[in-house]
């Protein structure tokens, strides 16, 4: 009897669900920072905010089985930490209960003030978004077109809605806005849906919006990663709700365990889509480990979601590219793969971003940092906004990290009562960017595909080269010395002189 009881207890222990907590950790020395950076290779830990600089907070979600040893290691190194969220799944369940309760109550009328019945103040399913798009296309045929731009691994269409006055012909500037590239960042699709509502329902009331719709083609994709998004909605399990990547098929890696132990095979699913674009692919801030949250994929544009963006923009040139993420309250412009690295039209990009952030702040007082991703967060290559500027031919390219700010505890679990204020204030920033977009002369692309470094560099060795064979970037000499001529195909076009491709 005793033996049977022990077996039953052991089963109970084995099947007990893991509890996840989120910790706020602050490295105060370079050694502490290095320790935390090494921890990012531990796949059981989900870094909501990655270690990037001494003195800057790190947010890490750690399961109970790992927490004791990791916290002991922090204490032994005098690394300060505090608990941000004691039980992540409890928060997720409470929010789910609140959503269900709210659904049973009468909605506030100002959230559904258009001809199409749709509540902007809640997080919607993929099916809800598809139905909403179709209803808009039927109700506003002179303004709205709906089309899929591609299919995901699981066979879902990637929905895009185009908004423009179809009765006005002639050349129009294109503006692209996407959300949901990271599955768990639910506030970004909801914010894009609010933009759609404003453009359509404000057309007859607001002369500024009418000008935007008459003079531009708006291409809005709120769910760029529908597989991951739906997966994140499917459970209150933190590992599912906080899923970041897409749902690409599992990839397996085998590692040796020692001379007398069999090798261990680990299989993991998904690619970080915002590391999969062809901009210094795989060089920094990403991983080749399929189990990593920042796995960049087998090669640039290996994923159907990123290929869909590339193919659409190559066929429909854009003046402006905006991608929405969360969280941190940062407005970023290119380039994010290296600190102090900027496009040649930096002043215009930065001034437009500063004006947008100021307009956003005037709504509710929300403050945003403004800068490149490398300067404000950490260097990371393969990002969509960098690719759009560097290779996609756009003039204005921006990435928004939406609410909440870094110190707020809820991070990716932003409650629904934050949807409307987040969307409203971000729309004010988008209007500034749209106004600047309208001012770009027709036929102008990025006009700044090259980029420069904030520090002075020697001029490119092109003075004795033929006129058509010269370097086009001030960093060509440095890149060539670092081996980029062999590893980055774009170098033959950007830096032919430094790569020795010129005939004298």
UniProtKB/TrEMBL annotation:
Region (Disordered): 444-467
Gene3D superfamilies assigned: Metallocarboxypeptidase-like, Zn peptidases
CDD domains: M14_CP_A-B_like (cd03860)
Cofactor(s) essential for the protein: Zn(2+)
UniProt-listed PROSITE patterns: CARBOXYPEPT_ZN_2 (PS00133), PEPTIDASE_M14 (PS52035), SHKT (PS51670)
All residue ranges annotated as the Peptidase M14 domain in the record: 122-437
One annotated GO molecular function: zinc ion binding
One Pfam assignment: Propep_M14
Keyword Protease included in the entry's annotation: yes
Residues annotated as the enzyme's active site: 401
Residue span, ShKT domain: 469-502
Gene Ontology cellular component list: extracellular space
Single Gene Ontology BP annotation: proteolysis
Family note: Belongs to the peptidase M14 family.
PANTHER family, per database record: PROTEASE FAMILY M14 CARBOXYPEPTIDASE A,B, SHKT DOMAIN-CONTAINING PROTEIN
Protein name: Zinc carboxypeptidase A 1
